[in-house]
Design a protein that fits this description.
binds nicotinamide-adenine-dinucleotide; alpha/beta; seven-stranded mixed sheet; 16 helices; globular; single chain; six-stranded mixed sheet; 486 residues
Amino acid sequence: MPNSFQPEASHFIGGAYVEDTAGAPIEVIYPHTGEVIATVHAATPEMVDRALEAAKTAQVDWAAMTGTERGRVLRRAAEIMRARNRALSEIETHDTGKPLSETLVADAASGADALEYFGGLAGTLTGEHIPLADGDFVYTRREALGVCVGIGAWNYPIQIASWKAAPAMACGNAMVFKPSEMTPLSALQLAEILMEAGAPAGLFNVVQGRGDVGGALVTDERVAKVSLTGSVPTGRKVYAAAAEGIRHVTMELGGKSPILVFDDADLENAVSAAINGNFYSTGQICSNGTRVFVQEGLYERFVNRVAERMDGAVIGDPMDETTTIGPMVSGRQRDIVAGYIAKGAEEGARLVKGGKVIEGAGFYIEPTLFADVTDEMAIAREEIFGPVMSVLKFASEDEGIARANATGFGLAAGVFTNDLTRAHRVSAAFEAGTCYINAYNLTPVEAPFGGVKLSGVGRENSKAAIEHYSQIKTVYVGMNDTEAPF
Ligand SMILES: NC(=O)c1ccc[n+]([C@@H]2O[C@H](COP(=O)([O-])OP(=O)(O)OC[C@H]3O[C@@H](n4cnc5c(N)ncnc54)[C@H](O)[C@@H]3O)[C@@H](O)[C@H]2O)c1
């Protein structure tokens, strides 16, 4: 068993690794081999309490620093993260099974972007001055919320941790982060990096555990804000639990996003986007465009071309840098996907390519293409979170938009067309938080990211995230005598 992935201890609290073996063990499985590569322990109530207390204490002095000083720490952390990109990517590949060809460019690299971006923004955060009658005025102070809780999903562990921690810390908050129990390793690395970059002990803490540990964090009275990345069912629970204490929330939840490909689209670009938007990270991406609506005139050519291009997928050892499709994160997730594939075939979709579980120790399944999918089929309605593309046929623009929006989700949407006005008209009509024109699934830190409808509330990345990690205090200044009726 490779033991280089065993962390020094399960949790990172108050600036140091902390172990408490009284918590239930959680095995970390390498999805390529099914081997246990590390074991951590779920946080006991005592660990949760210590982490929240450490965050509460650290937050006071951190918020008193200038934004420029806070930003310096974040930008230093970004540099350390970039310098360690390969080691962090190898951890992420072993934790998630995602190929190294991806983790080298999309995980810690994106986390570093967030630290750098919000590090740069920290010094610019200000309130405003509002002049009133007779010399009175109001000024506003942009203040931190306090202790924030971050809860992560397993598909982009260090990216999710960084996307939450960076804006939180830029605004003067402290954080307790709970990674997904499937992928507990890399958030500990982020905690180490932040300490090395000069963050005070207790500013960013990591506790391990399952939903019960998440639940304990969400309802603690020391917590001002909860940011969750996860599924809609978990989102409902966490949002409701946070509401009890009137806590701020950001909910980054699931999706079933549409891509509309019109007859006049550039075929190769649309096919590339559909491949990226369904098979990158073996399909385990919230904003994937899993319902690909293709206009009648291009439909057969599109389906054939996707199938041809799928022959170029390199499935296998995720540590081999030529691999483009790794295993699913777990046997359970692979079985869920296999179940959807069986249902798709049963419900009459045309299986064009793939569809089979790849037998062996790892959790592999073939990238799968279904054509002739209809709106009522389970594969067109439910989030699969695996490498399954559904292609549906449409005729008119109005029909395409109506069907694209006929879902409870609203995370992302894409349109491929060379008609300039149609591209903008369709984007305006999409019920989605992020829309793409002749592109798909790019998430630069400068752009707001988040969902509408069941896909969530709040935005990550960009200046918009600042609104979700700070609050405005109004200070009214009287410059005149105070009048009273008696
Ligand atoms: N919108 C986004 O930015 C985004 C990004 C990645 C993944 N996702 C979504 O995440 C899902 C896949 O991730 P997952 O399977 O890890 O999600 P999940 O909902 O099962 O778990 C997410 C996290 O919530 C925790 N949790 C579970 N129950 C809880 C409770 N009652 N209280 C507090 N915390 C609790 C889990 O331990 C985990 O850390 C998909 O639906 C995907 O679309 C969304």
